[in-house]
Amino acid sequence: MIDPKKRRTPGSRPVMHDSLQTSSSSESQSSSSQVHRIVNSRIEEEPHPSATRDVEVDAYEQNSPVRRVRRSKNNKLTAMLQVRNEQGRYLEEVLQDLSVFVDEIVIVDDASTDGTPDICRAFPKVVRLDVLEKPLFAEEWRLRNTLWQAAVSTDPDWLLSVDADELYSAEAKKAMRKLIDQDYADWFAFRFYDMWGCRTHYREDELWAMHKRHTASLVRYMPGYPYFYPQQNHHVPRLPASCTVLPGVCTELKVQHLGWAGSLEDRVRKYLRYKRIDPHGEWGNPAQYESILDPEPRLLPWKEES
């Protein structure tokens, strides 16, 4: 059995933002040198240069009251989603998939004008559905915070932040219980792949490389810990920013992001929406916005297994 103290990765920092962010070679290098990584559902150890940081975190945990709420078994996994006008897209498939491996689902509907709330109500594991009267999409940090408050009100042990167009791989779903039933890590990050124009290929170039770094989407909820989101109107982290100072693990488990997998017309609509919300690139990369319209992007075949 691996010593939990050797599993902690206090020096690791996952990417918290969505796919419309640039990645550098230094980010890729730092994300690959973790103390601990998970390949599929196997746990493997790797060396880490900053062993002294482990001592600092150990001292923090010994003196912190949050240590008492870390349970190594029988944890409840709650998925949380923010949705808006998802009828006819991927929401039903995502909820069907989540219902297989999570215990509960909490949803905030951002004032949909279609049948999205009815789709959500059809799934028994949706234990809370809040339908907003006025949309908060233009103030995304408020929407994220609204979702977080709704989710923690259900007394979760772990929260999985999922968008309405994301599917976890079979290996990720298989490993999920192993990830949450332990007492050494408080968050886990995954590799997200931007599927492009289909489900068989993902995009990879200097502007589209989210899968080369890690995105944290699974976090232990600890009552009393200060959780907060940065006040951004767009590209807000899916988990509170304060989560990253806690010990966590970057895994090699995969997630398919289907947001760009639809038709060209669908991608053009998303391009126009991003340009309207963030015309000056205050929250994202203008070059990446423009690259959405590339006629011949570089695509690579998707493989379910690592």
From TrEMBL:
Residues of the Glycosyltransferase 2-like domain: 84-213
Q: Where is the composition biased (Basic residues)?
A: 1-10
Region described as Disordered: 1-53
Q: Which domain of life is it from?
A: Bacteria
> Which keywords label this protein?
Transferase
Q: Does the keyword Metal-binding apply?
A: no
**An example Gene Ontology molecular-function term:** transferase activity
Q: What is this protein called?
A: Glycosyltransferase
Instruction: Provide the species name.
Output: Paenibacillus amylolyticus
